[in-house]
Amino acid sequence: MRVLIAIPHTGLVAPVCFQSVYSITVPEGTTVDIEYMSSYGCALVRNKLAVRAVDGGYTHILYIDSDQIVPADLLVQLAKHDADMVAGWALMRVGDKMTNISVFDRAAKHYKFLTEDSVEGLGVIGVDAVGFAAALIKTSVLHEMQYPYFVYVEYQNRTVLSEDLHFCSRLKSMGKTVLCDTTMKLGHLKAITI
Question: What is the DSSP letter of 28?
Fold first, then answer.
């Protein structure tokens, strides 16, 4: 396995994020490279990093958001699932109970995020979408997709669909699996602003 650890950022990567990324245990027989990249928008950066992974011959890309503290065994645990895409989970903000794991409410026609107490202890679950706090994706699925892979969508009714949830929606429409390993809880540094 050859993995590009990809960290999109907007000019600042939290020092504790750096520390946790460099502490990741690399599975035997796996090589990793780490790439930090910033740009005008998250979708643009995720696309550039995906292109780098595809063109660089990587088998996987592991996105880690720049404000996440990841467990040392993150890559080992996510890789063992051999999924098209598998993610860890995090709270949306410090002090919030909403997670980055979502299910699509077909009646309401939008994603609903699961709460912390509803996901703990579930193990590995199939999900409709998950925010990319930390997400491991096989580059083989990128080969099957049209570019751009990531698109931030704004609708006329002023609602939005983030680039990570949009990506998950595309994967699901291709018949691919989107998993979340609920044993892989990350520390999200984003605080609630009042």
Answer: T
Give the C-alpha separation, 42 to 44, whole Å. Answer: 5
The two tokens of residue 17 are: 């994020």
pTM of the model as a whole:
0.92
Residue 193, in any domain of the structure: no
Query: Could you say which residues of the chain have pLDDT below 50?
Result: 192-194
Residue 75, SS3? helix
Decide if 194 is inside a domain.
no
Residue partners of 8: CB distance under 8 A and separation at least 6: 37, 38, 39, 42, 45, 46, 49, 63, 65, 66
**Residue 116 covered by a domain:** yes
Into how many domains does the chain fold? 1
Distance, in Å, from the CA atom of 168 to the CA atom of 182, rounded to the nearest integer, reads: 17
What would the two tokens of residue 148 be?
């751009």
pLDDT tens column, 135-172: 999 999 999 999 999 998 888 888 777 899 999 999 99
Q: Residue 148 belongs to what domain range? A: 2-188
Which CATH number characterizes residue 169's domain? Answer: 3.90.550.40
